[in-house]
């Protein structure tokens, strides 16, 4: 068994049905008893239990598991991985879809490079409405935008050499195919006693683990997109925190782990200069201000002080805070009056 595709899920039956429709087709077209699909249901109430058990009875490569109660998101991720028998684990969101005809690229790469410890994937971006899973249009596989353009498949003797392909490197769970032990060790970094997104490890634990523990190991990048990734995420209220702070902080981790400084700095510069950043600043400092408690501004400035764009961003932040305080003070005056 070379590969276990692990799908944790909770009350996402329409999304899961589309996910499995295309994944099962891919496994059947390449099947020789070397791939399994593991679905771990976190005590859903929408019919998921009955659906996945029906599939498990129909296909020998599907393993279905349902927790006796909702054990939480990351424990359910770990449960799905703990059931895996494959050498490598692909942790796939139940709302992410394997692009038809591309699954064999991953299998072929695993067979060709058995000593590789991380297979990094590319994806297409999709921001669907809920009804688009019910009435799924396969044209989206063609129309969706590819995330990384103008690159090639690449074997590297050190995973650190894969830096620079994208600013959110290693953070999407569905793009890192790793050995079972590495996935479990990565998820151990998630502190269940702390709130979700209170640290980078409680946002994307594998993004911390890979630089700290795997940068000197062999890696392989597959440029052809394998996943249609849903960007209609359940953690939207944290996205500005993730984008404005944790991705910056992640670049600092890359540097500490021995990443090439020129490559990391160029990636960080691109992140700082992104025109969308002001939109996310506005969200963070106006609409989701409670997330500010997770930010170390000193750590942030240590990483970005060298980029001229930083200072216009800081001025914009001060302006947002000034407007917020004026509105808050004016509101209090009206209330007292």
UniProtKB/TrEMBL annotation:
Q: Name one GO molecular function term.
A: hexosyltransferase activity
Question: According to the lineage, what is the superkingdom?
Answer: Bacteria
Q: Name one Pfam family in it.
A: Glycos_transf_2
User: Which positions fall inside the Glycosyltransferase 2-like domain?
Assistant: 4-117
What UniProt keywords apply to this chain's record, in alphabetical order? Membrane, Transferase, Transmembrane, Transmembrane helix
- Is Transmembrane one of the keywords UniProt gives this record? yes
* UniProt keyword Membrane, yes or no: yes
Which regions span the lipid bilayer? 310-326
**Name of the protein this chain belongs to:** Glycosyltransferase involved in cell wall biosynthesis
Q: Please name the source species.
A: Mucilaginibacter gracilis
